[in-house]
Amino acid sequence: MKITEKEVRYVAGLANLQLEEGEVSRLQADLESILEHFDKLNEADTSDVAPMSQVLFDAGDTATLRADVPAPPLGNEAALANAPQKGAGYFKVPKVIER
Amino acid sequence: MDIASLTIDGVREGLRARRFSATELAAEALRFAQAENPKTNAYLHFSPERAMEAAARVDEQIARGEELGPLAGVPVAVKDVIVTKGVRTTCGSKLLANYVPPYDATAIVKLEQAGGVILGKTNCDEFAMGSSNENSAFGPVRNPVAPDRVPGGSSGGSAAVVAQGTAVVSLGSDTGGSVRQPASFCGVVGVTPTYGRVSRYGLTAFASSLDHIGPFGRSVKDAATLLGVIAGRDPADSTSAEAPVPDYSALLDGNVKGLKLGLPREYLKDLTGESGELIARGVERLKGLGCEVREIGLPSTDYAIACYYIIATAEASSNLARYDGVRYTTRAATPETLADMYRKTRGEGFGAECKRRIMLGTYVLSAGYYDAYYLKAQKVRALIARDFAQAFEQVDAIVAPVSPFPAFKLGEKVDDPVAMYLSDIFTITGSLAGIPCMSVPCGKTVEGLPVGMQILARHFDETTMFRLADAFEKAGEL
Hints:
The complex is a heterodimer. Chain A is mainly alpha-helical.
């Protein structure tokens, strides 16, 4: 077995996802079959290539950096407009620190 | 005016001959789109105010005798993962059901500067994750060609509106085939440009090293014109490229004699049935147009699905971390602690496919698995890119299928996520290499379902791809 239900719960914790019991067993089965397919990669000989983390083109290291020009930011009101809860110019969340 | 079959040129001629004004066209296009939408659920919401303002600007330009932009007055639809200032952008997710962006994506700014009229936002799989549009929190889209079938995904709505005639052209996004596959299923043209050709600023991030904005049209020329408008370097996206943007539509001369085309033997062995027969007929037509066709090898193809689903989910798990109930999503009711709020908001908010991919991505990046999965996948990605580079030493373009099968029935594949992933095999390879690729209609099955042919070209050589597709299209129905 590639992944257990216990590991599914652990990974869900890392991802900040609350799962129902039914979802845990379903995800365990899905991930198991997907991870089995991933084993195919072990057959590939990658001894002579470097990892490709980006589609690279022939350009200098700084060719794609923009000029560092100050511009007005979004502004407090616009930034908060979609917040589920806000107050006094801030995003409000449940209490983090007990006094 | 036959609104459902309008082209960009048709709009331009109509405006020039004063057969209609831009505001008249926009009003009629909105009315028609709203009346037809219940048949497909392709639009999630409309933006009539914004459309009428854009159209009024075009009419003012006409009144002043100014030169018009390449999209002047053209009704356009936009996939709901591309942000529009003041117009709701849901990404097909419950989490963003009420999200109204405070800024426009660069592609949106360019589209409106060119005179485009945005009618509304189109349905899609949640956060662009899916191949059938059945993962939208706002219900699936029906294929306009066959209403009991899916339109493909994830840009199902954007493909459907163009096929249905409720927009002239549209924008979608493609990470592993999300423009090409629905274009194939709905019988329209869909284009994934070179990675970096179009700014991703304002495209909601799914997998940043693979995400593209791409156009749909009812003709190659219309899709090419739209790409020309949105392409180019953007200081707001450091991965957008400096490369000059040719005037694509002006280069469509219909002459492809002597063009060298490659057929990947690894793709053809997996392609059976009617889709295979239609692609074979398409290839014969290309030979008839004077192209030289030869078999080529893309030996790393077998590893592509695993490679893609590791890289894409790893990037997605990181990009989707921002939907946490603090800044712009909905929030779970009555959380007890901050951590509780994150977990409940995300657990209640994300649909099953997003959860599956977040879990997979988090797993492959987690301690002890990173080298075996993520690093290995990045190396395999280099192999796949090398396959293409070597192939393009011998040929000018590659011809391939888009999907192993035509549009399937709604609900037919929802219970088998692995089978759904495997069906992306022909489109993800080009995405991993970052090369331009597109789907062009290549006939219909006996049942009348469209099949698309894929054309892939060298980095930044969209011109060859468009010229080939245009010549193919001009040769008439297959």
